[in-house]
Amino acid sequence: MEGFENKGRDDIFSKVVRAGKRTYFFDVKSTRNEELYVTITESKRRYDQENDKFFYEKHKLFLYKEDFEKFSNSLTDIIHFIQTGEKPIDDSMEESDNELESTDDLSNY
After folding, report:
1. Which structural domains are found in the chain, ordered by start?
2. First to last CA, the chain
3. Residue 4 scores a pLDDT above 70
4. What is the dihedral of CA 93, 95, 96, 97, to 10 degrees?
5. In this structure, are residues 61 and 48 in contact, taking their beta carbons and an 8 Å threshold?
């Protein structure tokens, strides 16, 4: 991290993915302690009929360094399943299902 001054949660690196009506922003940010993390923002352009104006609806995820490997592995497994129909051999999905059962009902998300 040589060569940059960090004040707060500055953007370090960003990538933008435009996908139809949605835009995804992948941003590497830094905490005051210089710990790096990722934010993933989904932005959708919407129209407000009442005010006759367009606005952007945004949803944001924060992904911290200690979760990178699990997140990456799960995303790879899901993409592989969608492309091939083959379920992953490991039992990480069972672990995820058990964790969800012990939390509040997340079906509204």
Report:
1. 11-96 (3.10.450.700)
2. 36
3. no
4. 90
5. no
Confidence of residue 91 (pLDDT cuts 50, 70, 90): low
Q: How far is CA 31 from CA 2, 8, 40, 50, 87, in A?
A: 15, 6, 16, 39, 37
Two tokens, residue 21: 């009506």
In the numeric block, which tokens belong to residue 6?
């960090």
Residue-wise pLDDT tens digits, 31-40: 889 899 999 9
CA distances from 21 to 27, 41, 56, 98 (A): 20, 14, 11, 34
CA atoms within 13 A on the CB side of 68: 8
